Structures are given as C-alpha cells and as structure tokens.
C-alpha cells in the first residue's frame, strides 16, 4: 500500500505518514488528509510561539512599511538588481568617481545583509506554504 506524502514542518515527530486508507479513516469523507499533527491545540500554539519568538528577537531591526509606503517605493527586478550590483563593484574599484555624499560602504553593507537574509526568507516562506498546505 503506497504511503501518502507527508508534510514536514522541521519538527521531528510532529507529523506521521498515513496511507490513503488510513487518511480516509482518520478524517471520514475525504481521502486528501495527508498529515496529522500529534499535539494538543495548546501544545501546538506553544510550539509555534516558541519557534516564532527567536526570529522576532534576533531580527528586531526589520521594519514594517505602511501600504502607501510600499506602493510608493521603486521596485527593481533581477535585471535592475544585477545592474546595481555591478555599479557598486565599479564604484568600489574607482572610489574617485563616487560622489562624497554617496555612502558606498553603507550600500555595500546593505547588499551584504540582503544576501544573508534572502535564503532565510525563502526558508520561512517555504515553512508558511507547508503550514498552509497542512491546514
């Protein structure tokens, strides 16, 4: 009997694999129940709260924009970002052409932070998708 795909939340033992037959027995009226959380509602809330507290504490410098602020920002795509990266490289190699009011070091720090943050944001987005799929 094939085992239904089981979603993993990164917490060992939180999900169990179920066969399609077991899924139907566990949740009558549907054969699409692929994952079963084995926690009480209070335990689940506590686990989620504990897991979400650390990133909030460690990333306290993140900002939250208002909708109007977000809409007014200039959006850049992959091509524009590549151009900006190349511009920073050229400016770093030729500091004499960089206007003194432009803080090149700050721009480089911002880019480095962006590069560090992106993979973590991808992991968080994937976790949210898994949680949505599980619910």
Describe this structure in words.
The chain is an all-alpha fold and 135 residues long. The chain folds into two domains: 1-59, no CATH class; 63-135, no CATH class. The chain contains five helices and two strands; from the N terminus they run βαβαααα. A two-stranded antiparallel ribbon has the order 1-2. The radius of gyration is 23 Å and the shape is elongated. Mean pLDDT is 76; it is low at 1-15.
Draw up the topology in text.
Elements: E1 15-16, H1 20-26, E2 36-37, H2 41-58, H3 67-72, H4 78-93, H5 104-134
Antiparallel strand pairs: 1-2
Helix pairs in contact: 4-5
Fraction in helix: 55-70%
Round the Cα radius of gyration to an integer and report it.
23 Å
What is the count of distinct domains? 2
Order of neighbouring strands in the sheet with most strands:
1-2
Number of strands: 2
Per the principal axes of the C-alpha atoms, what is the gross shape? elongated
How much strand? Answer: under 5%
* Individual helix count: 5
How do the helices and strands follow one another from N- to C-terminus? Answer: EHEHHHH
Backbone structural class = mainly alpha
Average predicted confidence as pLDDT: 76
Distance between the termini: 25 Å
Query: Main sheet, how many strands, which sense, barrel?
Result: 2 strands, antiparallel
Extract low-pLDDT stretches.
1-15
């Amino acid at each position: 009997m094939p085992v239904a795909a089981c979603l993993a939340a990164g917490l060992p033992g939180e999900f169990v694999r179920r066969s399609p037959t077991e899924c139907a027995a566990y949740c009558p009226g549907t054969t699409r129940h692929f994952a079963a959380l084995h926690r009480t509602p209070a335990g689940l809330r506590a686990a989620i709260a504990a897991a979400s507290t650390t990133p909030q504490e460690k990333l306290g410098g993140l900002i939250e924009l208002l909708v109007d602020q977000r809409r007014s920002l200039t959006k850049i795509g992959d091509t524009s970002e590549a151009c900006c990266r190349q511009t920073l490289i050229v400016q770093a190699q030729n500091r004499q052409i960089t206007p003194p009011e432009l803080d090149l070091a700050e721009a480089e720090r911002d880019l480095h932070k962006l590069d560090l943050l992106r993979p973590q944001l991808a992991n968080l987005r994937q976790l949210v998708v898994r949680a949505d799929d599980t619910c």
